[in-house]
Specification:
Elements lengths: L3 E2 L4 E2 L5 E5 L2 H11 L6 E5 L2 E5 L3 H20 L5 E3 L4 E3 L3 E3 L3 E4 L3 H4 L15 E5 L17 E6 L2 E8 L2 E5 L10 H14 L2 H14 L2
Parallel strand pairs: 10-11
Antiparallel strand pairs: 1-2, 3-5, 4-5, 4-8, 6-9, 7-8, 9-10, 11-12, 12-13
Helix pairs in contact: 2-4, 2-5, 4-5
Amino acid sequence: MFAIVTPEKIHLPPGAVLHLPGSWQDYQILNQQLGDRSSPRIKYRDGEIFLMAPLPEHGRKVSVIADVVKVLLDHLGQEYESFTPITMELPEKSGIEPDYCFYIENWSAITGKNRINWGVDPSPDLVVEIDIISYTDVNDYLPYRVPEVWLWRKNQLVIYNLQGDRYILETSSRYLPNINVSEIVTECLQIAYERNTSAAIRQLRRKLASEN
């Protein structure tokens, strides 16, 4: 099945990625046309528009990883807010839809808000992206100065921390100190694949409880 992008219709077959030249105004028109649809996803940077139709594998993995983050934050007694889907925009510069995002240090700044004013309100502290079909560039989050970005890529978790004006690869998360996040995420995804998500999350909770 072919991709279709017209003023009347947008359709991408599952797994497709479409890269188009376009202005900020073109991006806004396509975004409005998509409305509240979760697929395809859309992003804008530097005169380019990207459309991507996620595979079911994509949604499952982001759900498991988001659940892992929530369990670990709860284990640490950490307050947080989380969102999906959400569109981050800086007019004329950037538009992106992270798979999942968390406010951890800045959760109180967006509590009770139905809209976030990008460039005024703080950006998420942690963004999670599943990069199954090579759609994500960590530098897409640089204009927003997101402190930490997780990418699940090539069957491993890659953690980037913002240091100055660039992202640096790290082996641990600043928000989950002394926890081997990569190992936990990999284990939970394997259990979810072999059984289901609930089994993976229950086992993680039991493991954390046994360590107390």
